[in-house]
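Q: How do we represent a protein-ligand complex in a form that can be generated token by token?
A: Start from the inputs.
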Amino acid sequence: MFKKTRPIPFELIILRILSNRSNLSDKEKLQFSNIEKGFEGEVKFDALIEHLDTLVINDLLLEAGDTLFQIDTLIIFYGKIYLIDVKNYEGEYCYESDMFKTISGSEKKDPMLQLNRCHSALRQLLQKHGYTLPIDSFLVFINPEFTLFQPSHNPQIVLPTQVNSYIKKLNKMTSKLSDKHLKIADLLVSLHKTENPYARIPKYEYDTLRKGLICRGCHSFDISVSRTRVTCKACGCEERVESAVLRNVEELRILFPEIRLTTNLVYEWCKVIPSNKTIRRILKHNFKAVGNTKESYYE
Ligand SMILES: [Zn+2]
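Then emit the structure tokens for the protein with zinc ion bound:
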């Protein structure tokens, strides 16, 4: 049972919009694909454990002492807490004398080091609140295209070919939980920080973003508009005008939470809707109008 489900990371939501509406730099493109891929791996793992009859807490950002640490997945069993970091790496890697490298030799951030830091920070945090349940931590490599060469077996590492048997093992573990377990779960969820200072959001401005309706299927801007429907010329996907406008207004609101939604602004943002009367009707229907003049806006 998920005590806390996994939200789409805010950074990823923004990058998805910006990737359509601006030119991301190569560095930002790489960041975007890494976050997208990482999230994809986590969601894949969530699906494998969604039927576990115990408490699962996803995506926690916690603080112990001065250390902020992020947990992908935490599972509370009767006698143990499992701390799991899911990696969606692809390709051939080797792990030797505490060095994590690609097969071609370029050194990568050591995920085990990160996991172990997280492990001790979590132990410290739980101790501070009077809990001493043992913690086991694991790196789960979920991508079937991942190979790891390592000199000896490391029980903390779960390779793609071991994932199924690992899940079977989790299913067999005792999950008879008491009040104490529920309290630990509530405590951790209550300590979760929603503002992530690690999030790296690229800079963007309204003026330089590409305006227009984006197809919900293929993200093309090549849209034709009839009285009631919009149709994507690239993939043929159809949508009601109102739903397409609202979807694109939502992007505007995510990018600029402080912006005043006026008819003219939304008209400019959607670009292809032929009449601003349509825009006004949609906004009136879905938001509360503030003011009754040309300057009125919607919230
Ligand atoms: Zn399309």
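The chain is about 35% helix and 25% strand. Residues 134 and 165 are 22 Å apart (CA to CA).
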